[in-house]
Amino acid sequence: MKRLQFQKFIFYAVLLLMTTVYIGPFIYQFFISISQSKDVFGDPVKLLQPPNWTFQNYANVWVDLPFKQWLFNSLFITLVQTIMNVFFSALAGFVFARLTFPGRKFLFGLLISSLTVPVIILLVPKFIFMNNLRLVNTYAGLILPNLITITNIFLMKQFFETIPKDLEEAALIDGCSYFRIFWQIFLPVSTPALAAVAIYTFQGSWNEFLWPVTLAITSDKFTLPVGVGFLKNQFQSDWPLLMAGTLLITLPTLCIFLVFQRYFVQGVAASGGKE
């Protein structure tokens, strides 16, 4: 009994240590965001002294910066990419999981193999392609390259393969087309997987920095990560303002994950097995 209690104590101690290491930077970031620059770089540092705390940095982010425009850009791009990813990934996953056609395995293997190519290598070809289409510094150029993700197709394919074939066969006997089977039978029972794809896509699109900073030229097309990133420059950086903006960016994805984490876990877990 004592040995079991000691093992539980060690387990929870390690878990607490790992949690502290993970959330420690976020706590420190919050204290910087409610501090003044003179307290951040003072000697000694005065981050933990309540009389010096202020939420003015959050007000300055909203008022002094084009934060509303950046917020609109991020919301518009993220929502379009999330909705399109959920639909096209589910449709492609259904095709690869339930339909039989020549070259299906080869095509799916080709898609999966593309994941081995580093994103940074594709950056220049994508930019040249968008430039030839005259889509640089446009919403279309920011949205199109990420309308569908191979990882999401794989996730949906694995989930659809767990659905019993009896449902599909019964629908075919009743005269349903494959698209109707997909729309009326497979989608309604795929809520966990669809939620996982939506959360995964929303997080990736919302936090995307590399592609927007490459394609967006003027500040009116900046997304939140790009706009806040430009608050840091070579000569001077307002760290409290930067940390306040960063925390504001983090809140939407954090809230969405906390609310829908049950569906996310169920979707990923269900996609890992087959009937």
Would you mind describing this structure in some detail?
The chain is mainly α and 275 residues long. The chain has a single domain (66-270), classed as MetI-like (MetI-like fold, Orthogonal Bundle), CATH 1.10.3720.10. Helices cover 71% and strands 0% of the residues. It has helices at 2-33, 37-40, 56-64, 67-98, 104-113, 119-132, 139-143, 150-160, 165-173, 178-186, 191-206, 210-215, 224-229, 239-270. Helix 4 (67-98) packs across helix 8 (150-160), helix 4 packs antiparallel against helix 11 and helix 8 runs antiparallel to helix 11 (191-206). The model has no long low-confidence stretch (mean pLDDT 84).
Question: Could you write a compact summary of the structure shown?
Answer:
With 275 residues, the chain is mainly alpha-helical.
Output the keywords.
single chain, MetI-like fold, MetI-like_sf, MetI-like, transmembrane helix, membrane, Carbohydrate ABC transporter permease
Mean pLDDT: 84
- The CATH architecture assignment turns out to be Orthogonal Bundle
**Mind telling me the C-alpha Rg?**
24 Å
Characterize the biggest β-sheet: none
Transmembrane segments: 9-31, 70-94, 106-128, 140-160, 181-202, 239-260
InterPro entries: MetI-like, MetI-like_sf
Pfam families: BPD_transp_1
GO cellular component, one term: plasma membrane
Topology of helices and strands:
Layout lengths: L1 H32 L3 H4 L15 H9 L2 H32 L5 H10 L5 H14 L6 H5 L6 H11 L4 H9 L4 H9 L4 H16 L3 H6 L8 H6 L9 H32 L5
Helix pairs in contact: 1-14, 3-14, 4-8, 4-11, 8-11, 11-14
Subcellular location: Cell membrane
Family: Belongs to the binding-protein-dependent transport system permease family.
Main location: membrane
